[in-house]
Amino acid sequence: MKKSLLNINNLSIFPNNNSSLKLVDNISFDLEKGKTTCIVGESGSGKSLTALSIIKLLSPQLSCEGEIHFNGDNLQLYSDDQMRQNRGKEVAMIFQEPMTSLNPVLTIGYQIQEAISVHSSWTKKKIEEYAVELLKMVSIDSDRVLSYPDELSGGQRQRVMIAMAMSCKPNLLIADEPTTALDVTVQAQILKLLDNLKTKNNMTMLFITHDFGVVHDIADNVIVMFKGKIVEKGPVKKILSKPEHPYTKALLNCVPDIEGKRKLKPIDYAKLNKMMMAS
């Protein structure tokens, strides 16, 4: 029997002043331990909101209903102090754009050490040494520990974010489109690094993307979201080879093949919206 690390049941997210406007609409899914699950869909489909709800970092203007169970505990019942202890140590997140996530006036070494010091009782020297080890783990030279974010390339900044997220060896790593702003070569390196770290640490990963090429490379399971709803989910081989929902099929029809033999088809949103309203 497959064991789940995270169970989401009937999750809905909506503005505080309008509970009928569901930005995420009654979704449920499980994350299998040690596996990579990709959430795929267009911008605005609710992917990032779902991730932020897991670590309770939603905007104060938004409300959340439903149950989010992590290792059997309902995170919705956690206090702010309990969630601060949970973030980083049990669940960590790599955000979409590292330049807006890293503090521009602090060195990357300091920012990595800050994350470690929150969850450990180590001496300052041991934390500094571990920060250097983490940079080496993501293939960044140790002398970069004194560099500022603007002195690094986009790929290096993303590696720093990965080092910070991995600093406390979390059981669950959430990656929110971490390769979107990178060129294809650096993207491949980042994906390989994340996959290696997942395997090495027996970690569960929730990877948010709109790129089916990324899904093909790293996913074990796939969740397809459209307008705040989950329209299809299952093993990656099934989703890519035999998609059932029209939206999943439409997304796959937007992916060009290398030989250029398949004609790309635009998504018929009017038809999809009618189907969603009828379902």
**DSSP summary, beta strand count:** 10
Main sheet makeup = 6 strands, mixed
Classify the secondary structure makeup into a structural class. Answer: alpha/beta
Number of domains: 1
Overall mean confidence score, pLDDT:
89
Q: How would you describe the shape?
A: globular
Order of neighbouring strands in the sheet with most strands: 6-7-8-3-9-10
Q: Which blocks of ≥5 consecutive residues have pLDDT under 50?
A: none
Task: Please describe the structure with a list of short key phrases separated by commas or semicolons.
single chain, 279 residues, Rossmann fold, 6-stranded mixed sheet, 4-stranded antiparallel sheet, 10 strands, 23% strand
Please give a quick description of this structure.
The chain is α/β, with parallel strands linked by helices. The protein has eleven helices and ten strands. The longest helix is centred in the last third of the chain and has 18 residues.
